[in-house]
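Question (not urgent): is this output format expected?
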Amino acid sequence: MLKQGLELKQTQKLSPLQIQTIKLLELPIQDLEQRVRAELEENPVLDDTPDSNSESGSKDISLDELKEDDYIPSYKLKVNNWGKDPRPEYNTFSVKQSFTQTLMDQLGYRSLSRQEYDVASFIIGSLDSDGYLRRDIDSLVDDMAFRGGITTDTAEVLRMLEVVQEFEPSGVGARNLQECLLIQLKACRDCEEIRNACRIVKDEFQEFSNRHFQKVMSHLGINEQQLKAAMARIVKLNPSPGGTADDAYVDQAQQIVPDFVLDEEDGRLTFSMPRFSVPEIRVNKKYADLLMQAGSSSERARNEAATFVKQKLDSAKWFVEALKQRQNTLNKTMQAILDYQYEYFKDGDERCLRPMVLKDIAEKTGFDISTISRVVNSKFIETHFGIFPLKYFFSEGMENSEGEEVSTRELKKALRECVDAEDKKKPLTDEQLVVEMEKKGYKVARRTIAKYRGQLDIPLARWRKEL
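Got this back:
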């Protein structure tokens, strides 16, 4: 049976200013600068260049106050007034030749038929970012026919793959790690270490990967000294040849520009945000003219012109206010982090890094946890001991043997020290690491050791074994 009824619900609707602020809050400094540039180009009411002819109150000018005497000198509609970075070392964008283009250039120097060139080009286009060919040869033949209109066979594809495998960086075009290493070894000058290294990789790759060194020596009839010399050659090889020639876009994305800079003034730690300042808002003469011209036309045209300019002015005010709120939020959040981790920021000693979670900073600032999360995301600070993401300073805590709370980062550092100090011929198991950590005053479970070991990219004991 259906029933009708009234239900009262209370919902919260975000204002345009709140939506704008949330979007800007998440942006790191590089993306923010691009966003401001775009806004300056799209909305001529905004101007980030101080105007010596305008009065201090011009940035708050309203439509009702617009008169013929209130004209503000015009500026270019197409914004090109973004000043030079005051910290030029951060203007690091550069264009590299892409990995694929590097290989295609080398292909162009080979004397090949059109058919061979097309097959080799398709192979190059099928390589992954590490420079490997992960595709099955038969499926590659089918793909060339259906997608590239190239009629070929397995023998020709394999022959052209050998051509690609001769290109730089050495190891490119390999179908697995073993083949990648062999390609690089065959390109080296012939000597005893290289010959032994080739035999190890070709015939004893599985035993070598599992660190069964005694079996390798026994199977190949070589001694420990010869094995060490061959291993020294193998470990210098590049397992990811494609990684040596990043695309320009990847290179750009990997650059880090700090949002905050840690300073010291009269023995006290402070910070600054030197990369950004809020632009002024002024009415462009072009739009003032538009209103004046509309005054002599019909009432409808005058209303439309006034509505259009008002929309631009409101949009500009929302944007500038959102930037101010972003600046204020970042300042308060960074100050709270600095206060909380003050001892650590003095010299970067990880032992002074206190356990800290988002809730701690939210309580100190009065902001919501989601706001702190947005601030922390993709933001960096430059200190006298390195550049760090703000996320670095957040970690959960555990108690040591004396009942003092220590951060998980301190525990990881202690774990790393235990592994670095171990006998590499008899590396410590996770159970033995538990004992070593207890000796340092940290009571940690074996599963926690395994978890931290994985986060630190420390392999299992048998993988850390050396001769």
